[in-house]
Amino acid sequence: MFQRVYTACYPLHSGSEKLLEGTRPTNDRQRLKREWARFSRIFKSQPYHAIKEYFGTEVGLYFAWLGFYTEMLVPAAIVGLLVFIFGIGAAIKFPPVLDACSEKNRELFTMCPLCDKECGYWSLVDFCLYIRLVYMFDNDATVFLAIFMSIWATLFLEFWKRQQAILSYEWHMMHFEEMEEQLRPEFVATATTLKENPVTGKMEPYIPAKQRYQRFAGAASAITFMIFLVFGAVAGVVVYRAAVFGAMMASSSNVLHKRAKITTSVSAAVLNLICINILK
Fold this sequence. Notes:
Elements: H1 28-35, H2 48-55, H3 57-93, H4 95-101, E1 110-111, E2 122-123, H5 128-137, H6 141-170, H7 185-190, E3 193-196, E4 203-206, H8 209-250, H9 254-279
Antiparallel strand pairs: 1-2, 3-4
């Protein structure tokens, strides 16, 4: 009796959304299109009340959260940019980086081979560019950025609670409570067996224990497979990095020798990003 009661729901659209230049909006769609759905309003506050009146409270709260989150990201982005600029400047004047990049220290910083057969002893000066790039993104200021982001996350949650309380008061939702949780239509469609609820005494959809354990086993198998797939992808990236580095060091080109470290790191990072996008 609960199956296929409804398949989808859509908001009512009153009137056309087309609005001629120089004319006043005559319906909610035209008002939203002028005040919200255009790039010229990208730096303006969203009309939360108009969104709520047209799309409903749930959609209104979603866009209220999204707008608040975007505004809170502005100070975080500014601090992150300043830290990155500091890293660029520090990488030029940081004493360990200067020592590693000085030609005078070529014979002083002799490093062990990075592979068994094809690689020989190498100087740290050859990886000057890689050392500078690493210090740009991993310097003393990143500790401050980590502390700032932890404080930012806490303030974001607290400020959003306050903003949510303000919107709940303005939208008359302060004392709104859902009296009874409704069953999901997807669950009702798959649970064909009825069983009496010992609390309410009502007949409700029920999944037998055998079928429930089968679903748990299927879900656990899928999760386990994905975990091992992630481990395999990580191991593959490590093997790829070692193989590419060994091949570049085996080459007779000095340019490839100097760029082997940064080339393998960048290519491995790109490969890792591709694996993440595929597996997510």
